[in-house]
């Protein structure tokens, strides 16, 4: 069984040496207290919580799973006690305003927390994680009374939150939402309908659960333009224990994350309160959805990291055959797996995705900090700028990192051979749990359409790609004559040019053939993920080289390992991007020409 150990050295490398969070925090209105000593203390204490309390529940929670009796969900043994310890430490309000009981620290610290908790035990981390999105939505779009009523107990962690979007008939197409909201004389609404796939929809960890619900007013316009957003608590404030017409109808029987309660929620004349403007619910909900999508991107690196922590020790201990280059352990019956090239390939892929993905998330975390600064400073232009910048990153982070996290979790299971397929070693659970990450908060296909269709083509006409690829160009030009960094620099220059060429070609073809957007979107997303990760591996290699020459906080072997992993990514993983580029530019005919009735001739 993999035992979680917080990767503090790698986290510190990114925080202190690659992205200089100390200087970054000095630019933020809420960054004064985020000193290096404070950040180090937070990471250290959180590591103890995750390693000693949350992590040990990962496998037992999967075995026991959640239970539903008489409309009440109970979580696995140990979850309530672990959650109380989490709440007692003030962790829920780490990055939320002090006026509501939080610590008021930058959002990036919350993402560090989310990564660590998610790697230790993703199903557990989902309970407080869903609450964060509800808190952000109420903070940005709620009125003063709603903030005063809900934010303090949510920030304290005594209440939890959810988002209730989809329904049996609509999936991702929220324009088909049927849940009704009937206005009442007192200004409230009666909410009636059924929501499915509701993570943390019901549980026994908190005294109340605040549902953020999409519903339609009478005579609302059809489609997404007729959806409003409502706060619907399980129990009305001041009436804890009295039913508000919200009940869990059933628990989904799932492939993975079994200790996370995924509920069918029934609303039967439940009292709700509108948040934001009438028929503008989907716009408000995107605050919640974007928060959740960045959190789900963390799941990609969380499962890559945990799988690596399980497969690496096994590869060092398990003996099978002799290395092709000669005996490595002559006194043993066979050599350790780690001496075999193909096993090393799988281990290095896990390491490259976990550490490269972490760099991508931490970079995005600084964008999130800047966006929140716009809110705190009441600077709409600043908020809009950084919200747009983060909006371009979000589908890449969510789509690419979850796909790669699942891929390398499968590689980790492969390292174990047949032993990986049985429960004893814990690897099959990681694969099962990782599978959902590519599906919820918008499938990878939806992320691709969001990236290419909305962000790149409609919103910016390719400007967002030009802006980000400039980072690759600047690095390439600066280090092209540097003997150590030239291989990275040259490849980044080629990727930047190809990325922009790819964008322009798709844009021109899509003007005449709309299907081009959907047939190219997956390949474009994956290419963008490889391009972005290449930049961050080059950046890590540059810093590692500098620290080897001038001294750093870690031993030289740490920095040498960074350079070796960067080499592996550029030489063995980055070439995959070329295939995605070629696939994205192929005519739509090969995908769209087959008539639906001709997909099979043997069954209806």
UniProtKB/TrEMBL annotation:
Keywords: FAD, Flavoprotein, Oxidoreductase. SUPFAM superfamilies: Acyl-CoA dehydrogenase C-terminal domain-like, Acyl-CoA dehydrogenase NM domain-like. Residues 479-594 form the Acetyl-CoA dehydrogenase-like C-terminal domain. Its cofactor is FAD. Residues 279-449 form the Acyl-CoA dehydrogenase/oxidase C-terminal domain. Signal peptide: none annotated. Residues 163-269 form the Acyl-CoA oxidase/dehydrogenase middle domain. Pfam families: Acyl-CoA_dh_1, Acyl-CoA_dh_C, Acyl-CoA_dh_M, Acyl-CoA_dh_N. Residues 80-157 form the Acyl-CoA dehydrogenase/oxidase N-terminal domain. PANTHER family: ACYL-COA DEHYDROGENASE, BROAD-SPECIFICITY LINEAR ACYL-COA DEHYDROGENASE FADE5. Belongs to the acyl-CoA dehydrogenase family. This is Acyl-CoA dehydrogenase.
